[in-house]
Amino acid sequence: MITKGLEDYLEIIYNKISSDKDIKAVDIAHEFNVARSSVSEALIRLADMNLIIYEGRKGIKITPEGKIEAQKIIKKHKILSDFFSEILGIDLAVSEENACKIEHVINEEVIEKIKVFTDFCIEKSINKQFRKTNDNDK
Amino acid sequence: MITKGLEDYLEIIYNKISSDKDIKAVDIAHEFNVARSSVSEALIRLADMNLIIYEGRKGIKITPEGKIEAQKIIKKHKILSDFFSEILGIDLAVSEENACKIEHVINEEVIEKIKVFTDFCIEKSINKQFRKTNDNDK
DNA sequence: GTCTATAGTAAGGCAGACCTAACAAAATGT
DNA sequence: ACATTTTGTTAGGTCTGCCTTACTATAGAC
To answer: In the beta sheet, which residues pair with residue A54?
Structure first.
């Protein structure tokens, strides 16, 4: 089974690969503030699980299975982050930070409900209403 | 620092102690479906951290520090569980289960906002409105 | 009072996620 | 081309949280 730690690695690999260019192990090490050796181990494990193709300096590629796995996590991440920032009015950095942690533990049913609820709130302008109330309280 | 695992142990100890009577290590083992020895280790660590007073068969007591720590966790738990069940309309068991996991990773700012937002939604009957919409969709 | 079931501890192990230090190989600078 | 980074791996360790097995101490049953 994929662990929380590996999910984080896979997520960043997917994001980098789909957005721009290549990603190196050392970049991940910087991003997560961990030792290069820790990244090395993690990449080897992801490769063992057939989620990425890892050939050291030759680069990191994502497999179709890895892509599916990554997309699941990213979907959760986005739903959470959107809810925090757009509905609750939390600043983006904090929203992202919390989404990053919660995405690994929350279950499907709750995530789906949060999504539907977020859409509902935007449609009914509940977010704007809430922020107004919230600002007045200060 | 207190870990997620220890937070869970402390939480159940606090809950049992404040609700009914005594709690034994073996009860915790059943509750969490872990071996007695695992509980034993955890209790010793909690005692080392001065969060509980543990004297084997003589029982488990919670220290004032432990109480404060436990209350923090329980507060988060309740805010999350209430939001999931009362606003999103998720059933209690699932709400509890998710609250249990998220309470260890979410930060203060987000939790506070969720609380304020939950109150706001109840006041404005947004929860009822949401459930109606949700039911019609099915 | 003995004897059995229950509760707790100790010892030894495993996996995940991290570390440092030492080293090899490749890329870069000049 | 050669020296110096930079990048990645290996080896050896730590810590947390869990396990099993085997042992001890106690509480209750009879």
So the answer is: A60
Identify which of B66, B98, B60 has the alpha carbon closest to the alpha carbon of residue B79. Answer: B98
| CA distance linking residue A110 with residue A11, whole number of Å | 20
**Residue A137 pLDDT more than 80?**
no
Q: Which one, of A68, A67, A61, A50, lies nearest residue A22 by Cα?
A: A61
SS3 state at A100 = helix
pLDDT, chain B, mean: 93
B99 touches chain A (CB under 8 A): no
Q: Is B106 exposed, middle or buried (0-12, 13-18, 19+ CB in 10 A)?
A: buried
pLDDT tens string B60-69: 999 999 999 9
In chain B, what residues touch A90 (CB-CB under 8 Å)? 109-110, 113
DSSP-derived pairing of the beta strands B60-62 and A52-54: unpaired
In whole angstroms, give the CA distance from residue A89 to residue A75: 20
